[in-house]
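User: Hey, quick favor. My workstation is busy. Could you predict this chain's structure for me?
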Amino acid sequence: MATIDKNTIKTWKKIALFIGASVLLVLSLPHNSAFHYEFQKGKQWMSEDIVSPFDFPIYKTAEELSADRNKIIQSYKPYFQYYASVEQQQLSAFSANIETQIGEKYNHEKNILLNLLIGVYQRYILQKNDIPQIFANRQQLIISVIKNNIYEDYPVSELFTPDDAYKYISSEFGKKTSADAAQYIFSRIDMRNYLHTNISFDEAVTNKIKDQLIENISVTKGIVQSGTKLIAKGETISSKNIEILESFKKEYMNGEGFFGSFWLVLLGQILLVAICLFQLYLMLRWYQPEIFNRVQNIAFILLLIVVAVFGSMQAVKSGVNIYLVPLTVVPIYIGTFFRSRTAIFIFLTIIVLVFAYSPNSFEFAFISLAAGIISVSQFRTWYRRGRLFIAIGLIFLFYVLSYITVCLMKDGLFENIDLKTLLIFAANAIFVLFGCQLIYVFEKIFGFLSNSTLMELSDTNRILLRQLAEKAPGTFQHSMQVANLAEEVMRQINGETLLVRVGALYHDIGKIMHPEYFIENQQIAGLSIHENLSPEESAKIIIKHVEDGVALAKKYNLPNKIIDFIKTHHAKSKTRYFLSKYKEQHPDASDFSAFLYPGPNPYYKELAVLMMADSIEAASRSLQTITSETISDLVERIINYQISNGYLNDSDLTFNELVLAKEIFKSKLKNIYHARIEYPK
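Assistant: No problem, here it is.
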């Protein structure tokens, strides 16, 4: 049975990921027609005349619906529950006690007092702390009392509190009886004991009825009949036009105005997704091979695209403000693990997929792009304490500035800037802040490398670097010098300085296994262990430090990106010194494979710069005479040799970057060796 090549399996996995992502993206899109017109108040309608092909309602604006809701809140009646048992108990207790306390005397006065008590209960008694609930934020005149399952409206002015009821009874009783009788009866009967609340505020019923009233608010305020011209070409768009066009757009996107084929719409969506993902495939395949070569990278990128588009579409379908979806966290994730241009391209892909179905498409695209691009630029160094919050603040600031820009373009009025939208941008920034905490999770799941991890790896007290310093001190010093050279070059050509520095520190860790075979670690000058070995044996040991370095890196769980530096720092070059000796001993030999490093050649600029820095730093130690001319000649000779042999062909270094790199190497080496410029005599 034939075995399947690993590369073939990897290719099929990538194809499966792209197909799976395409299916999920198509399913997440709304399966109705998109509204292709953009309009702004005060601008001219530049498209053709629009005549409504169907009847549709004119929907109220958010401000109008809010006003209707507030009107209900200000005017609805609070509901109170009536308790007949309270009145019965207190009247019975009063009748019994007054007979006991007063006896046969003042029968007429007793009846007057009983009738006053009955009258008070018929006008209802409520607790004093219920009154603020009646009058909260409004002037309430009527309440509704639930009595025997029947709702009765009752004026607030007729209600009593226990204190009010006592004062009322005392006053009225004094008017209808003699002072002696009133004093005698009140000295034996305390009317406060018989004044208890017989109604109480029913919050549950009140809120239920209030919610029903709000729910029944009409969302429309008129109708437009089929055949009505909605707007004419060249007409200035007014507020009334905006209301009608927004209503028309809503009905159109709900399918009312769609007369085409559902299957053709679906086909269009499939083509949209296919084109976007195919462009992404080409970009990664041809311009980002270091990303494309790992299945985990493809899976991560496609996962982010699917989640971002799905979340945006769910917000559109449910009526949630689309700016609550923290889309800017996507370029932050991508930019953290890959290059900034990759992050921007992927973010553009998401914007294109969401654009057609987002409300106010131009506004959405402009605002999202402004915030997304600033997020990429700011989060390149987010591992620094405090930088994270500055970056989040800048994202919020650019959301606000771009929104204000759009508002001013539309209306030319600051008054129309919605403060609620600004709060939504603030919420978005907070979501991005919390979303950044997932970077560590993604790093571990997908085997990525963030700047925070690079900072940890650059600590020279880590076990591998300590071993390198102790067992191969010359190599350690060489690695430090290479790190300084490569880092300076990357800083000038806008590369990943921290990545190349860490790669430089670890690129020669394989020499830990046999440090004595490398000249920088030999203790006695002029005495080499290779003098007792054949060129083939020496070459095998020298070349093996790459293999040993990879093995050590995997043993100590170094990230794959750091292992790439170990593999590629000699590219597919030759051990030229030992190959030359071998040719002297075997002039007729034709097979020189034993003297070749396994490679591969560097395939992005950080790897290429490290390879150049490594060769230049090592060769500079062998210079007999150190002058500006010898250093310049060394740098030119080494880099030109690497170019002519194709070692830099797979990297994305430009000609200008190579020229700049040469100049930086020359300048740094002159500083290291304190080379003097020779002046003419």
